[in-house]
Amino acid sequence: MAIDHERAEASSASSNNEIEMRNENEKLSRLDQTHSEDSDRTLKVPEEMEMGDERENAGLLPDTTEKPESKKPAWFGTVLWTSINTLATIGIVFTNKAIFSDPSLKLAQLTFAAFHFTITWLTLYVLSRPRFAFFQTRRTTVAEILPLSVTMALNVILPNLSLAFSSVTFYQVARILLTPTVAAMNFVLYRATLPRAALIALIPACAGVGIVSYYDSLPAADAKVKTTSTLGIIFAFSGIFASSLYTVWIASFHRKLKMSSMQLLFNQAPVSAFLLLYVIPFVDTFPTWSTVPVSRWVMILMSGAFASLINISQFFIIAQTGPVSSTVVGHLKTCTIIALGWATSGRSVGDKSVLGVFIAVGGIMAYSYVMIKEKQKAAAQATRS
């Protein structure tokens, strides 16, 4: 994109448009080829899902290989943006938890989601401007993007409600169920299957989540120990279903609309925010705004800033890291959030739910290992052929 932009300054507008369209078509053909190669529909770990399928669409992002070399070593940028993404992801979970711990803000979930969608759109709008040219915008109709926008709204609102009525540990461990749920949806909708070893690895992952769900929802003798309510569990599993459906649909909309994840998100976010405006007056319970502490307003702004940093850092992570590194970083974020959530929950190390945490995390790590090996094996076979 940056090269196209430089050419645009030296050529007429008509020739520039022809070049951009030709380059875009080439990139879209690579995207279609990628999806055809993924016909076995291998699944991602939850952290890769949260990235919004960006890596498959790296061909639609700016070509960074031809940019002038930086004075700093290549690993510096990788470490920098990976650290920013990791810290922002951890920060947004605990910041949102602190916001939702305020009873006056806990039931204003749709307003909070609309705020985040607006921040997301503004961030993507800035990144798409010629000065930055991180990606090229593509337009679609509201009717085409409407189903995905509704699912996107549920994908944000339900997990946020789960976080509001759950402990951070349960919230993060429950997200592990995204992988088996997407696997089940892909099998039902497309008859796609996973390697047997991967399926076996998902069994302890599901069992571990079940153990954590049971023990984390039991009443605690110590009032300082944070537990998960029945509502939290209901919202968690509803959110997992919505997030899984969103993940499955994303792949379908990539092919249907021939857009990258960021192009889709650029179209989805404003539609999702606009739809929520019709529902907010009937669902949300607003606080007396003048009584909301300044510290809460600061946290709300921090949450929006973290969301922007996550979106920005993803561009660099996609361009500079491979699938193995991305998976390792994803697991690092999961383990860090769970550990910090446990440390702030007031539970002892000997609590029975810790067994479920280790089983669930161990299961999803084993699944990731199997899937990486399968991809490497498939790549090796393709090279030989």
TrEMBL record:
This is GDP-mannose transporter. It is a multi-pass membrane protein. The keyword NADP does not apply. Its main location: Golgi. It is found in: Golgi apparatus membrane; Cytoplasmic vesicle membrane; Endoplasmic reticulum membrane. Involved in the import of GDP-mannose from the cytoplasm into the Golgi lumen. The chain crosses the membrane at residues 74-95, 107-128, 140-158, 170-190, 197-215, 230-252, 264-283, 295-317, 324-342, 354-372. Residues 1-70 are annotated as: Disordered. Belongs to the TPT transporter family. SLC35D subfamily. Residues 19-57 have a biased composition (Basic and acidic residues). InterPro entries: TPT_transporter (IPR050186). Coiled coil: none annotated. Keywords: Cytoplasmic vesicle, Endoplasmic reticulum, Golgi apparatus, Membrane, Sugar transport, Transmembrane, Transmembrane helix, Transport. The lineage of its organism: Eukaryota, Fungi, Dikarya, Ascomycota, Pezizomycotina. Homooligomer.
